[in-house]
């Protein structure tokens, strides 16, 4: 049941520290600065591959984009992230040196299964990151890694997104250490941040009353915009998707630097802007974008570590310091924001209109 929560989604948001402990359990090698993962793919292949293709849909696609940002800064590999429905393999591509990774919570998404089949037909080695043991994807790929988030009933993904990104961060660590591009010291930093994730997420959950008040204050807005750079950009996209799917209000995520190339025309005093000002996400540059929207009268809610970075924002939500995982923790605050906007509007949060938990048609 819902264990006293009004909706499964609310329960699942609050379950995240527990879900993350399951995701991480037994997989962090603090001394070695490495991830301890049960991966059957050949080490020599993982050491020499030169490209990773990620195929996924919706929220899982954004988890893939987060991994791309992590991987490309820490591991010597080119990463391509495609919406599964758009994925094509081009003639002449060296499939023997490419790993295709399906990120899929359910393991049953038809678009993702179909993309994996195209990749396999071209000769690629395939890998799945999924929540569902025994799902169709696990029977199609060469090897799988489970995110261990536990079942998710709310149609909108919450805890599974956070567990996916965490699992992908573990995979990044593993690959970086195996290939030697990630030093033991940097590996130790990353796994230490992974280890601290459950408590960091809890501290954001503890700020729910404040986040709820902000949601209630702005529930009548025309639209909501989310802006971020680097690691925070995929989180901006994910936060916007969450809000639109459960509240039916227009919400969009933008790379902060893109605002001036068009979207700024949409900004008014009735369009709150939620800005990621995390250190790991080029906060100083985003500050300028915040000023651009403030001068058009938009209320700004800044997410950052509790320092001066956000003092000029109308509102701020504190996110604990957590290196490259800070934007992921910020996401939890915006899950709560989306939830409370939708709840205030009386939406059927666990079953938004027109949507299904697992999409088994292409
Ligand atoms: C959004 C959401 C969807 C799924 C997408 C892929 O909250 O849940 O966008 O992420 O349908 O589903 P999986 O991960 O099961 O392949």
UniProtKB/TrEMBL annotation:
Q: Which residues form the SIS domain?
A: 41-181, 214-352
| Chief location category | cytoplasm
Instruction: Supply the alphabetized keyword list.
Output: Aminotransferase, Cytoplasm, Glutamine amidotransferase, Repeat, Transferase
- State where the protein is found: Cytoplasm
Q: What is its EC number?
A: 2.6.1.16
Known catalytic reactions: D-fructose 6-phosphate + L-glutamine = D-glucosamine 6-phosphate + L-glutamate
Chain's role: Catalyzes the first step in hexosamine metabolism, converting fructose-6P into glucosamine-6P using glutamine as a nitrogen source.
* Top-level taxon of the source organism: Archaea
Choose any GO biological process term that the UniProt entry carries and state it.
fructose 6-phosphate metabolic process
Subunit structure, interactors included: Homodimer.
Might you report a single GO cellular component term? cytoplasm
Organism per entry: Haloferax elongans ATCC BAA-1513
Name the chain's protein. Glutamine--fructose-6-phosphate aminotransferase [isomerizing]
Which residues does the Swiss-Prot or TrEMBL record annotate as the active site?
A: 357
Q: Could you give a GO molecular-function term held by this entry? A: glutamine-fructose-6-phosphate transaminase (isomerizing) activity
